[in-house]
User: Fold this.
Amino acid sequence: MRILFIGDIVGKTGRKGLSRYLPELIKTRDIDFTIANGENAAGGAGITHSVFKELRSLGIDVITSGNHIWDQKDIFNFIDHEPRMLRPANYPVKTTPGRGSVLIETGNGGPQVAVLNLMGRVFMKNVDCPFRALDRELPALKEKTELIIVDFHAEATSEKQAVGWYLDGRVSAVVGTHSHVQTADQRILPSGTAYISDAGMVGLYDSILGVDREGPLKRFLTQMPHRLSISDGKTVFNALIVDLAEKTGKAMAVERIYEII
Assistant:
């Protein structure tokens, strides 16, 4: 089983780059299942139903999110009806719209794959403990499959690494998202869990985290609000490929993708 996990998709530029690169990548690399973080896919903040459907049409099986999940009002119109659109599972109330995990049957009689979305607490919003949420969510998923992919949307690398070690041998992969900067620490942990601190992004290459440089620079220099925009241009495509043993869910190989398209 070959899993492709795509870093945070940023705005229309990221989506355009994705449409040029992803379908051929899925074909040439024999990808069986594709996950992408889409919380910045609509205008650089949030996601709409039309953007969700656009991403699904490109071959993405599950779309995860994080702290920007509620930035577009349209999310409330569809998240309860689209099980492949995830929000972090450790939101503090049971009445939070949407769901934090999903179990998908792969095509052609393939095994089921579970995707679990969580958010960190260090330098992030106040959510429930991700470690306890993991312990709450995992048993039901493991009753169905050993192929479990975790998107841990977090700021602090230490918190991401802690979750990786906490889950080593319990899930197939822990992929960090949120920073939009791909890290070079991909590895397979001793008990068979693939890990990377951050998958990176799909977005404008000559940018600051996927947005035009001028806006963030003015914010830093003046400490005043400035509009953020996203121009057309070269796109960086960041992703992770993980090969898994279908019966055990253990990772056998892990590979970073960093392409300018």
Notes: The longest strand covers residues 235-244. The chain has a mean pLDDT of 96.
